[in-house]
Amino acid sequence: MNTTTINPSSPSKELLNQYLSLSTHLSPSSATLTHEHQTDDTPNTNDAAEIGEGCCATIYALSPSSIAKVAKPNKQNELWNDFGAHLSVYEAISAVPTATLVPKPAYYLHAQDVTTWRAAQAKKIPSREPNDVLCAERIPPLPRIIRNSLVEVFCPKEQTAEVLENKDNDACLVRLYLGRRRPSSLHAQAKFSLRNFELTLDKMELLGFNAMQFVAPIAEALVVVHWKAGSDGRDVEFVLGGPPERRISAEGFGVLDSNLHMQRVTTWRKAGAVDEVAGLQQRCVYVWLLDFNQCSRIKADTQGVQMAADAYWDNDPYYPRPTKNDDNHSTEGKIWREFKRVYLAKAREILGDEATQPEDFIYSLEAKGQERQQDLVMAGPPKATSIGPGNDSKKKKGREYVGF
């Protein structure tokens, strides 16, 4: 286990290299430091802070550990679908553990019950016509020391002061884009933001850490989404966030209690894996899976394979893009081969050796990848490639992609 003491005065790139690594565990002093710098955007007021916005809902922080998604007008059915798919994926991940976490879903409120619910909440969502609400565990944002380092490394200097003063940037999660590399000619063209910061392959290389560490968590989670939860995974997101709260298993407690000879300790914000609990160490960051409002049910058949493949290509570039069979040296080639290996191995655990759907899924991706590469040769760079999403993607997501 790589236990790290983080020095706040270290250069920003060094801090990010240490902190954003899945193999780094914090020493007790560093864990205390990051908790001191952890975001608390639930101030001593009666108003819940708005921490995000998606296609179907606005997201508020009810507490440091819980959120409420409030449906936008005419988006109630989509939020209800989010709740159902979220439950399915959460239970599937719980049954087939992976290195990726899913926020625990709490409950759903029909609009007719929201007024009564609001009256019982310590934090008040801004007044509006009552609409459906989905409540769930909050993914802890990255602490201030890391946010400041991201700003120092990637933010244009003329925007730095404004970005650091903007409280919206406290809700910082990092999107893992294994399928995107910024072109060297791309320059910042929009306002810098730490909300949903895009960690592309070139940024990982700039920071000096190996993108391969994120392949297995994403590949294994996608297998569980497809073949255990029975979902196409359309529009889901993979992000780096802080460690979860209160996730200690009975087995972990037994090891902890035995090692400490019946002494009581605080397990708040301790991770659930036995080795981490026993060593009283805390991971710096975790891969989290979220946002299920556009997911559709699939079966383990030909149609299900096609729906899963379509969703893979239609999503933001969290997933690696298939490369040529003889690409054994590029970062993209190595990542794709590892993704393929892990995906098929995990699928065999779930479906058994006889199932063909996982291999059919991979074959479909590779065939589409070859088709796109041929189109690239014939017509020049397409509007949407692994380099970056195109205009259709922007419209679907309602997001603006920034070249930072």
TrEMBL record:
Residues 27-48, 373-404 are annotated as: Disordered. Residues 287-354 form the DUF3669 domain. It comes from the Eukaryota. Pfam families: DUF3669. InterPro entries: Znf_prot_DUF3669. Coiled coil: none annotated. It comes from Colletotrichum gloeosporioides (strain Cg-14). This is DUF3669 domain-containing protein.
